[in-house]
Specification:
Two copies of one chain form a homodimer. Chain A is an alpha/beta fold. The first copy, chain A, has two domains: 260 residues, Purple Acid Phosphatase, chain A, domain 2, CATH 3.60.21.10; 113 residues, no CATH class. Chain A contains eleven helices and 19 strands. In chain A, helix 1 packs parallel to helix 2 and helix 7 runs parallel beside helix 8. Chain A is globular and about 70 Å long. The interface between A and B is medium-sized, with 26 and 26 residues.
């Protein structure tokens, strides 16, 4: 029966606390390739947010190009991808018409939602319809229709795809959107303020499978076959308990069967809790010292440069939190440091609320410098 | 016999004095398409500087993608292009492996100079070798060789292509470089200071034809078959006397035959000389009022807002020069205005000499504002 891998939100080129994740990303992409080969799938589906930014660094573009070329050359398995809110649809789809003949299908134009990619499988053809990320204005302009919000816009496009279906041919819908009621986490960029970005799952129900992207935690919403694969890596500490992977989907005569295939990161994101002494001791015996660490220190007394100490055993310690630190010095600054959320995170949340977007890389760097300086100053005083 | 069109330096997305030239560019690209159809060529060759910037605006990327898709879909004529010094090779070549099967050959990797694109023509196969723009460091790193300058680097790559040739199969070399002794103009970006960017033509002689890009004026250098097509549009007033076009190349048993096919711009770049009154009079009867104008005013007396007056008849007047303006007021500022080169040009030359590069769009805009303000101030005083 027709089988494919469903993944999304690669965010190639993403920085995590100013550390490039490209190596980590290529590490899990290799595993995706192995799974594709092992399970002899008919396609690899990537549901948007291919890159982390509309203008990704040139090295990132090159790395993705090399991965994809290698994937299709070696496996002869086509790749179908749509653009997400982090991608520039126009940049991503350059030359798309030339590529589709060779197995790379880039669906980045909402005007083409009713034109499926047809894959010939051993069990007959399968149609893949793609709804690239869009906002309501784009849909109004492209179709001259009167859709007022995200939900109406998405429903409009989903209906166009639905109406274009050929009876008897299985149809998969690929979309990058926020289904109402699904669960977000810290590493997704809001599409719109106050939940106005939510769309309903009901118009998607009739497709044989719906491959969603945008949310980084694997989950389904509304029905078992309307599913987010989640990102292949943890992109925030709020995801530290998630099991990342790809979804192996099989379309059978009795409905869809799916399986979550685990991806093993090169460096995991972990949250460790304990006293500094305990974590130092644990770190010395830890076979995964290179993991990205958020350390929650339970010490109640002052500590001398805890970050530098921890980094001796966990070099990729990225955040420190003090959970039991009693404010005894009366300094408001010290109190802020002791809060459970890092300053970094507090500021980013604030910025997101007020500005409705994420910090740029430059702003991130600046914030990082300011916080580092402030911390250094406080440690000197402390 | 095998025939192809040779063009280069499209610089899609270029601004001329802060005016977008995209419409003008699409206008001449259409003519190139007509020529390709009319002459039934086997290929369209574009010798670099496809875009004007390494990160072109998304609309520009979309416009080029649409043109190329339309070109090959309608004519079934393959396109071969290499990256120039204005392009980001890594961005341009994304997905190149997927496109070559469908007729778009993007040669953007110096590691592939010995791998030709093979075109099957009615008279047999032809090989096209591409040398994308590169600096010596890139060649040293890619090949671990010891080339000290632009000339040695280019010669190294040209020899690799030469050695890869198959006896009996005609070979065309495409390169983006500055051949020593050729003539530049104001709209090319220097590759290196003080002429260190020049390369020799001798290592290219054995190819059946050498399709060059970088210089914007059509010309040959060293031998008749080593040729710059020039840009399809005038990109500076220094080019106002050039006849822009594309080259129709035919490879015959007795050598190469070429023909210059003229391109008619939507709006020409012209330099007009005369008194303000004369130019105003001429403008009223001019069928090409929309052309981009540099006006050289021969008036000897003060003029009241000559730019605003001229723009009533030539709305795209972009520069004013005063050629006979006698400095009678004793003001150094007035003297500067009367020089034959515009302030804009003087500053840009200065910047190029000192910084070795062109102004960014933002800097250009700022310069434009400053000059406009200064001019307004002087006109008030005058």
């Amino acid at each position: 029966m027709p089988r494919f891998l469903h993944t999304s939100d690669w965010h190639i080129g993403r920085l995590f606390q100013n550390v490039s994740l490209l190596d980590d990303q290529l590490h899990v992409l290799k595993q995706i390739k192995s799974y594709a080969k092992e399970h002899g799938v008919d396609a690899l589906v990537v549901a948007g947010d291919i890159y982390d930014r509309s203008v990704p660094p040139a090295e990132t573009v090159d790395a993705l190009s090399a991965f994809l070329a290698d994937f299709t050359a070696e496996l002869s398995i086509p790749v179908i991808l749509i653009s997400g809110n982090h991608d520039s649809a126009k940049r991503l789809r350059f030359g798309a018409q030339y590529m589709s003949g060779s197995g790379l299908h880039i669906l980045g134009d909402i005007l083409n939602v009713a034109t499926p990619v047809t894959l010939e499988t051993d069990s007959g053809p399968v149609h893949f319809y793609g709804i690239p990320y869009h906002d309501p204005v784009e849909v109004r302009e492209a179709y001259g229709c009167d859709v007022k919000n995200y939900d109406e816009a998405h429903t409009y496009l989903a209906r166009l795809a639905e109406q274009a279906r050929t009876p008897g041919i299985p149809a998969v819908l690929i979309s990058h959107c926020f289904i109402d009621g699904a669960e977000g986490c810290d590493s997704e960029r809001q599409l719109s303020l106050g939940g106005a970005d939510r769309v309903s799952y009901q118009p998607l129900q009739e497709f044989d499978y719906v491959a969603l992207g945008h949310l980084h935690g694997p989950q389904y919403k509304g029905a078992d076959h309307i599913r987010y694969s989640g990102s292949p890596l943890k992109y925030s500490f709020s995801e530290h308990r998630q099991q990342k992977g790809v979804i192996l989907v099989e379309l059978t005569d009795d409905g869809v069967i799916w399986e979550h295939l685990e991806l093993i990161p090169k460096r995991d994101l972990r949250v460790l809790e304990g006293t500094l002494a305990e974590l130092m001791e644990q770190g010395r015996r830890d076979p995964r010292q290179d993991d990205y660490i958020l350390a929650r220190l339970t010490d109640t007394q002052d500590l001398l440069e805890p970050m530098s100490q921890l980094r001796q055993v966990y070099p990729n310690t990225l955040e420190l939190e003090r959970t039991n630190f009693v404010i005894s010095r009366g300094s408001q600054l010290v109190a802020d440091v002791s809060s459970r959320r890092s300053e970094d995170q507090v500021f980013k949340d604030f910025f997101r609320q007020v500005m409705g977007g994420e910090l740029t890389d430059e702003q991130n760097e600046l914030l990082f410098e300011v916080i580092t300086e402030a911390r250094a100053g406080m440690e000197e005083q402390g």
